[in-house]
Amino acid sequence: MSQSQKADRVADIVAKTLYAYRVRHSFGVPGGEVVTLIDALQAAGIAFNLTRHETSAAIMAAGASTITGNPELLVTTVGPGLANAVNGIADAVQERVPLIVISGIVDRATRARYTHQVIDHAQLLRPLVKASFEVEPESATSTVARAVAIATTEPMGPVHLDLSPAVAAMIAPNVSVATPPKRFTASASVTDPTVRALSERLRTADRPLIIAGMEAVRSCAGPALQHLAETIGAPIITTYKAKGIIPEDHPLSLGGAGLSPLADRVLLPLFEKADLVLAFGYDPIEMRLGWLDFVADPTRLIDISKTRPDHAMHHAGTWISAETRSILQALNGSIVERKIWAGSEPAEAKAELDRVFSTKAAWGPHAIVDHLNEAVGSDGLVTVDSGAHRILLSQKWRAAAPLCLLQSAGFCTMNAALPLAIGAKVAAPSRPVFAVMGDGGLEMGIGELATVRDLGLPLTIVLFQDRSLALIAMKQASAGLAPAGVALGETDFATVAFGFGGYGVNVETIDDFRNELEAAGRRKSFSLIACRFDASAYSGAF
Known about the structure:
Blueprint: H1 10-20, E1 25-28, H2 35-44, E2 47-50, H3 54-68, E3 72-76, H4 80-84, H5 86-94, E4 99-104, H6 108-111, H7 121-125, E5 132-134, H8 140-151, E6 159-163, H9 165-169, H10 193-204, E7 208-212, H11 214-218, H12 222-232, E8 236-239, E9 253-257, H13 261-273, E10 276-280, E11 301-305, E12 318-321, H14 324-332, H15 345-356, H16 365-375, E13 381-384, H17 388-396, E14 405-407, H18 417-427, E15 433-438, H19 439-444, H20 448-455, E16 460-465, H21 470-478, H22 493-499, E17 503-507, H23 510-520, E18 527-532
Parallel strand pairs: 1-2, 1-3, 3-4, 4-6, 5-6, 7-8, 7-10, 8-9, 10-11, 11-12, 13-14, 13-15, 15-16, 16-18, 17-18
Helix pairs in contact: 1-2, 1-8, 3-5, 3-18, 12-14, 13-15, 16-17, 16-23, 18-20
């Protein structure tokens, strides 16, 4: 029997089912327990990308998933491999990523006797994953199909599968492969009683306000949301991950909110004045404590989302279970243009946000964000790591489209920007991708520069090198405490980049930064631009 005629192994059925459910990219670090699976993935058309750490691999899969809109795959070996991935899997939980996790497991025949590297995978992940199953020969395709269905049901999240080497290599007793069902979404109509009631609330509101989140982005609700806002004159605020759902240069866009006290001082008073707040696909997991009960009167708040909120950050008087785009399209067919917000409060808020986040120095984090925003281009994608630079960038960034700024906004894990950028670039090779990081975050996962090199990805890494865990230092100072455990030594990142096969440079002026960004766009290898400034530049920044 030729190679092309070989009987399908269980691993082949697993891989073919994943492919049928649109999985195209896998990331991980191999071990002996998953070699058959990796072979099957490659044969099925799912590329396996070797990473340097399993948490980074999980976040790379998240980056790819954001670009493709499909579930993507993390592969780990037994025991320490899966344990290494816990932070990345936890990130997928709070970032609502439909991550499929497949881990090798010791064969059943020896599992009760053998202890080397053996831990209870399902128990380890129980607080994190939506479900955990072990793949069995007779039901492999059904188990994988079920895992994907659970992972992609809102709120999306990770699902774990254990696969033992013996089962993976076994000739499959059933060779049929499950395929996704045809999916239809029923649309709301102007005659729907819920739509009519919501339309009436809008007709009588004098100061309506809209806040939008990631679920609205996933439902491609941007055009319908913009139409509604323009018709009734309602300003729109978004979470960081929903930035760009309408272009942020639009007069009704008040940009993103989440972690900035400066922005809160401008935006939260608008909610106090609003007589109706519509929350479209909004998830407060991205917000700081200042957003607890951001609408004091629950009767003024209407939540519109597919799934019932599982938080107590606020209490909505009305929850409408609906697909965001559908309800918006129905609303747009039933409302008429009208004048609201008789005062100029939204316009004043927009002007005040521009003022408080304006750039006041020729060099430093503000100026770097400004020029990067100009240089990225309409097709560019930026990822940003946790830290002071993320809060400033998220507030200053002007997103022209959704999903052009990726970050860990719910879990806020460090060392997310580079893996997100790698995953995004793997999924969209022709798209310019920029990873914005602090020196602490890059040092935490610096081995992934080797992944960038080995995959041949011409990424641009913009490093905010302030030699400090600046955000924590600021929190210490605000508490009246002396700095402790936040100072970083000065790594020569330019030399490090060359050592990993890329290009590196240190810059300390905006002209040098501008020139290096332009040069990076022409380079076939990755570029690392280390922007050096003092952490004091963040004082009062957000």
